[in-house]
């Protein structure tokens, strides 16, 4: 089996339009959750979110591209550009023939659906733009990255709700580890912050009207975000041979299914994913210094996740740090694991643990070191990133310092 | 149909029971209604009465709306309907 390293990272999200801005915001414990701004927002009972602001697609893409790029594709292309530029890779020959794109998204082109349903149902139009289908399809973002960078190997999109990008990155990791590809572009993208997207979430009654406060006893729900996180996963020897800068090593993963409930999380399913990732990576539980939690800020997730961590790590659960960055960037649904992987890289590379902001009140059911409110300097060698989705689908990645 | 009977019909339908099997003292749990069933019931009630029920599944005990029994739900709906009138 081949070792797999990350040689490029890119993002756009509510905290920043690139990795540097995002990590700076995480260090500062900045909150990117604000009043939502889009058409008909006044008809929503939930009006806050981690919205990407100050981003104008017009400056980045030409008119022809704009007719084909939903906002989730725009985010993907922005983040992919940053990641692939950082990696320094040019996809030609064998590298291009076997290199591909595996992305996660839960909703695909949600605002394209929204806009066009509005046109035909509300406005009574009988005609839509000819590119509605290629614009909204779940694989649009992966396909446009493949076209832009000449990636001719296996490319596809994974959709497992809130675990989409962790499942996607696990898949890309396997492809490089097994030798199928020398380099893969992977991560996730999501853009559901439009009237229909938020209205659908409102129905579940799990959204907070004021803030995301993971692990805090007074938490009252999740807050949605949007954006993308894209990475280049590369064969270690290939990266070394060309002298590439290595951000971190991916050392293992696991995926499990609760097989129990469509929305309620299961401690066993989460614990099996966490312990499975450790086993796959060949690391002992006591080596783990930091976990980027799924930490949605809902009553159900946070206590279940803490119980799962306590089960897997035993006494070491009290020594490791676990934080949820969702209080800063919101829950990016299918892209969330990808943006949160940046906090894992920051922990390994910079020795800075991103905080759980919005933490106000101790909850005995979440009695772990959640790095409340302020970032912390710490030297960690191994980190995990958790993602637990509706549908009971879990995916955990393990990363190591290099 | 009274508010009480309408609410009982909605709850009974969610619980897959006859309305006559739903008593005012029952809790939703006793009727076999889980958290998803509760959210669905509230949605059905909102649609039936054209009201908005202040309920967040993350903090049911802190909502202004008391869901501890069929009777308390009916009382809450009666209050909301009266406020709207």
UniProtKB/TrEMBL annotation, chain A:
Residue intervals of the Ketosynthase family 3 (KS3) domain: 1-401
Superkingdom classification of source: Bacteria
One protein family per Pfam: Ketoacyl-synt_C
GO molecular function: 3-oxoacyl-[acyl-carrier-protein] synthase activity
GO terms for cellular component: plasma membrane
GO BP terms: fatty acid biosynthetic process
CDD domains in the record: KAS_I_II (cd00834)
PROSITE patterns: KS3_1, KS3_2
Subcellular location: Cell inner membrane
Keyword Transcription regulation: no
Keyword entries, A-Z: Cell inner membrane, Cell membrane, Membrane, Nodulation, Transferase, Transmembrane, Transmembrane helix
Family: Belongs to the thiolase-like superfamily. Beta-ketoacyl-ACP synthases family.
Cited function: Proposed to synthesize NOD factor fatty acyl chain. Involved in the synthesis of a highly unsaturated fatty acid moiety, which forms part of a lipo-oligosaccharide that is responsible for host specificity.
Name this polypeptide is given: Nodulation protein E
Organism: Thalassovita taeanensis
TrEMBL record, chain B:
Sorted UniProt keywords: Phosphopantetheine, Phosphoprotein
Coiled-coil portions: none
Occurrences of domain Carrier (ranges): 1-81
InterPro entries from the UniProt entry: ACP-like_sf (IPR036736), PP-bd_ACP (IPR009081), Ppantetheine_attach_site (IPR006162)
PROSITE patterns linked: CARRIER, PHOSPHOPANTETHEINE
Domain of life: Bacteria
Protein name according to UniProt: Acyl carrier protein
């Amino acid at each position: 089996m081949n070792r797999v390293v990350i040689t490029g990272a890119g993002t756009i999200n509510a905290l920043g339009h690139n990795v540097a801005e995002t990590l700076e915001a995480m260090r500062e414990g900045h909150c990117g959750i604000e009043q939502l701004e889009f058409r008909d927002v006044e008809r929503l009972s939930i009006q806050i979110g981690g919205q990407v602001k100050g981003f104008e697609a017009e400056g980045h893409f030409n008119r022809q591209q704009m007719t084909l790029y939903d906002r989730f594709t725009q985010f993907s292309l922005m983040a992919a550009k940053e990641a692939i530029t950082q990696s320094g890779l040019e996809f030609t020959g064998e590298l291009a023939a076997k290199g591909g794109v595996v992305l996660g998204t839960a909703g695909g082109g949600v605002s394209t659906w929204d806009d066009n349903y509005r046109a035909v149902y509300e406005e009574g139009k009988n005609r839509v733009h000819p590119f509605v289908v290629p614009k909204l399809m779940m694989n649009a973002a992966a396909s446009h990255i493949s076209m832009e960078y000449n990636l001719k190997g296996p490319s596809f999109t994974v959709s497992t709700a809130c675990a989409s990008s962790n499942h996607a990155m696990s898949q890309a990791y396997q492809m490089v580890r097994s030798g199928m590809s020398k380099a893969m572009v992977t991560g996730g993208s999501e853009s559901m912050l439009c009237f229909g997207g938020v209205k659908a979430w409102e129905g579940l009654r799990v959204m907070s009207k004021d803030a995301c406060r993971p692990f805090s006893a007074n938490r009252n729900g999740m807050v949605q975000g949007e954006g993308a996180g894209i990475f280049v996963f590369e064969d270690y020897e290939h990266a070394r041979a060309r002298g590439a800068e290595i951000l971190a090593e991916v050392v293992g993963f696991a995926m499990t299914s609760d097989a129990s409930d469509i929305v309620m999380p299961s401690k066993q399913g989460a614990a099996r994913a966490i312990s499975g990732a450790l086993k796959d990576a060949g690391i002992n539980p006591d080596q783990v210094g930091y976990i980027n939690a799924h930490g949605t800020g809902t009553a159900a997730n946070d206590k279940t996740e803490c119980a799962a961590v306590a089960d897997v790590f035993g006494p070491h659960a009290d020594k490791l740090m676990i934080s949820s960055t969702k209080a800063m960037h919101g829950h990016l649904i299918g892209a969330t694991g990808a943006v949160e992987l940046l906090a894992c890289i920051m922990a390994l590379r910079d020795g800075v643990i991103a905080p759980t902001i919005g933490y106000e009140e101790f909850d005995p059911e979440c009695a772990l070191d959640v790095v409340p409110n302020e970032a912390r300097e710490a030297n960690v060698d191994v980190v995990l990133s958790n993602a637990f989705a509706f549908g009971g689908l879990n995916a955990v990645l393990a990363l190591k310092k290099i | 149909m009274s508010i009480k009977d309408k609410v009982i019909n909605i709850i009974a339908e969610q619980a897959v029971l006859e309305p006559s099997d739903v008593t005012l003292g029952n809790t939703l749990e006793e009727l076999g209604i889980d958290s998803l069933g509760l959210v669905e019931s509230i949605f059905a009630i909102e649609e039936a009465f054209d009201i908005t029920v202040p309920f967040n599944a993350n903090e049911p005990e802190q909502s202004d709306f008391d869901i501890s029994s069929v009777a308390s739900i009916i009382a809450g709906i009666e209050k909301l309907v009266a406020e709207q009138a």
